[in-house]
Amino acid sequence: MCIRDRVSTQSTGTPLIATMRFVLYYHPIPFRAQFMRVILEYTGTCYSEELPYELKLADPADPNTTAHFMAPPLLWDKEADLYISQTPAIMSYLAGTLGLVPESLTDSSMALKVLCDCNDLLNEITCGCGANMWDLESWDRFHTGRLVRWLQILEATGTKHGLTSDDKFMLGTPTASLADMAVFATLPLMERCLPELTASLREHAPNLMGLCDRLEGNKGLCGLMSRQPTDVYCGGQIEKSLRAVLAGGEADPSPDPEAESLFIDSD
C-alpha cells in the first residue's frame, strides 16, 4: 500500500504534507517486505510502495541502470539517491537512518543477529523461497523441530536481556531497536496469516509474543496490521503448499501459473 496521506505538523499546528523520502519495491504481498514496512511505520516515516518488475528487467551492465539487484525487496532513498537491496542491508540502513541501532557494539551486533535469525526463519518456512514444496512428513519435522528451535532461540535471546511478556525490549535497550522491529515483522504476521501456528508461537515464545502485543500499541504498527489482508502470506505455489499441510492435507504438485505469478523471488 502506498502511504501518501501521512502529515506532519509545525509548532503552529499547521499540517504539512510530509515528503516521501523512501520508496519500497516489492511484490503485492506482506512477507519479507514486512521488515521494512514495520520499521518505517513504527517511526512514522513516510514512504510509498511500488512493484519491482520494471526495475528488475534493467541490464546491470548498462551504465544507465540505477538499481543493481537480483530480487526484491529493494529500497530507494531519494534523499541520498541510493538503491539498496538484501534484507539485512536494507534494515541496517533504515535502522541507522531512523535511530534504531543500539549504541553499543555488542547490542548492535546482537540486533543484526536477531534480524538474520528472523530472515532465516522466513526462508525455512517457505522451503528456500519455494525451491521445494511441503508434504505432511516434512512439515511435521519442521513444525515440531526447527520451527520450535528458532522460536526458543529468539525467546532465550530476549529473556537473557530481561524481556518479559509485559516489560522490556528484546535486548534490554531503553527503547525499541532493530531487534524488536525484526521480531514484530516476523511473528505477528505469521500468527495472523497462518493462525494454525498460534499455539506454537504462544507456547514457545510467550515473552516475544507479549512484546509484539505491546508494540502493536504503536499507531503506525496498529494501522499497518489492520489494513493488511490475512489471506496471503508469501504467495505462490509455496503458500498453497503451506496452507495445505496446515489444513492436514497436501497441495496438488502440478504447476499453478496464477499462484506462481504472486511470488517470484526474494532476498
Radius of gyration: 19 Å
In the sheet with the most strands, the strands line up as 4-3-5-6
What can be said about the biggest beta sheet?
4 strands, mixed
What's the overall geometry? globular
Q: How many strand units?
A: 6
Estimated structural class: alpha+beta
H/I helix tally: 13
Could you tell me how far the N terminus lies from the C terminus, measured between alpha carbons in angstroms?
Answer: 20 Å
How do the helices and strands line up, and which of them pair or pack?
Blueprint: E1 7-9, E2 15-17, E3 22-25, H1 34-42, E4 47-50, H2 53-56, E5 74-77, E6 82-85, H3 87-98, H4 105-125, H5 127-130, H6 136-144, H7 146-160, H8 178-193, H9 198-204, H10 206-215, H11 219-227, H12 236-246, H13 257-260
Parallel strand pairs: 3-4
Antiparallel strand pairs: 1-2, 3-5, 5-6
Helix pairs in contact: 1-3, 1-8, 1-11, 3-4, 4-7, 4-8, 8-10, 9-10
